[in-house]
């Protein structure tokens, strides 16, 4: 009972404090600073309830693929997306999809003939480009492939920790991991290096875009690559990706798991 009350208090606290910041007789400063630390947000980052609701509605539409295509996040939602990404929201959503994926993998009936497979996308699925997007408005800026390539070539993208946990669970079940990425073949070495450094190993195959794949939509390119895996006799149990173009098309897996990403859209 007592526990419930604490939760309730915490959940209304942000709104209460946000509204009181503009109050002529605000809370003593230390209390506000304490809240800012708890929530991981800077002082003054408080968003109005209306903006919170509007941008949550926008994000749900994005995650459900009801709102596509789109080129950049709405200007009004810049602070909202930032708070979601660096606060607890993104992390919780990542954990939830990872947990559900793992539950499914553990419950699936496996043949054990080495042909059970799971597909993983790389960017924003296994590796996080959040350090890059922190410098580029969390999706507010139009995508710049030259700058992004420079970031990729540093090979320092950290693991999405919840995905690393799922990845290792999938492998431990004897399921083969196929990494299917929109990254170019010319980034093979740096991508391998980055994956290993971030803790990923023992994938069955890393598939990148070759020259003949350039110009295709991700949906088409990835479908063709999955078609080939099916032709090779693999059974695609699961597919994890942050874009719907990772998950839709032909030769879809038994279960698709949409990893959250409100920062960009790839057709
Ligand atoms: C995911 O699973 C872990 C470990 O079982 C648990 O600690 C965590 O709370 C779960 N997260 C969510 C969001 O379900
Ligand atoms: C990639 O690595 C392989 C093996 O380490 C090496 O033979 C090859 O030259 C490298 N390719 C590039 C483009 O750096």
From TrEMBL:
<dbReference type="InterPro" id="IPR010028">
    <property type="entry name" value="Acid_phosphatase_pln"/>
</dbReference>
<comment type="similarity">
    <text>Belongs to the APS1/VSP family.</text>
</comment>
<protein>
    <submittedName>
        <fullName>Acid phosphatase 1-like</fullName>
    </submittedName>
</protein>
<dbReference type="InterPro" id="IPR014403">
    <property type="entry name" value="APS1/VSP"/>
</dbReference>
<keyword id="KW-0732">Signal</keyword>
<dbReference type="InterPro" id="IPR023214">
    <property type="entry name" value="HAD_sf"/>
</dbReference>
<dbReference type="InterPro" id="IPR005519">
    <property type="entry name" value="Acid_phosphat_B-like"/>
</dbReference>
<dbReference type="Pfam" id="PF03767">
    <property type="entry name" value="Acid_phosphat_B"/>
</dbReference>
<feature type="signal peptide">
    <location>
        <begin position="1"/>
        <end position="18"/>
    </location>
</feature>
<dbReference type="InterPro" id="IPR036412">
    <property type="entry name" value="HAD-like_sf"/>
</dbReference>
<keyword id="KW-0325">Glycoprotein</keyword>
<dbReference type="GO" id="GO:0003993">
    <property type="term" value="F:acid phosphatase activity"/>
</dbReference>
């Amino acid at each position: 009972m007592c526990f419930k009350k604490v939760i309730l208090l915490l959940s209304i606290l942000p709104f209460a404090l946000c509204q009181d910041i503009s109050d002529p007789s605000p809370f003593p400063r230390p209390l506000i600073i304490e809240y800012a630390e708890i929530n991981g947000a800077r002082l003054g980052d408080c968003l109005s309830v209306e903006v919170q609701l509007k941008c949550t509605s926008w994000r749900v539409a994005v995650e459900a693929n009801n709102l596509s295509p789109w080129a950049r996040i709405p200007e009004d939602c810049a602070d909202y997306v930032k708070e979601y990404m660096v606060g607890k929201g993104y992390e919780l959503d990542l954990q939830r999809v990872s947990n559900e994926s793992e539950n499914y993998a553990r419950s699936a009936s496996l043949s054990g003939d080495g042909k059970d497979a799971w597909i993983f996308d790389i960017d924003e699925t296994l590796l996080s480009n959040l350090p890059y997007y922190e410098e580029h408005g969390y999706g507010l800026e139009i995508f710049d492939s030259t700058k992004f390539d420079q970031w990729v070539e540093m090979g320092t993208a950290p693991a999405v920790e919840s995905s690393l946990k799922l990845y290792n669970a999938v492998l431990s079940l004897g399921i083969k991991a196929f990494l299917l990425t929109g990254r170019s073949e010319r980034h093979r070495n740096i991508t391998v290096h980055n994956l290993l450094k971030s803790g990923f190993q023992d994938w069955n195959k890393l598939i990148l875009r070759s020259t003949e794949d350039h110009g295709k939509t991700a949906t088409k390119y990835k479908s063709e690559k999955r078609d080939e895996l099916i032709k090779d006799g693999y059974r695609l149990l699961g597919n994890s990706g942050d874009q719907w173009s990772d998950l839709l098309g032909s030769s879809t897996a038994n279960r698709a798991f949409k990893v959250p990403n409100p920062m960009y859209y790839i057709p």
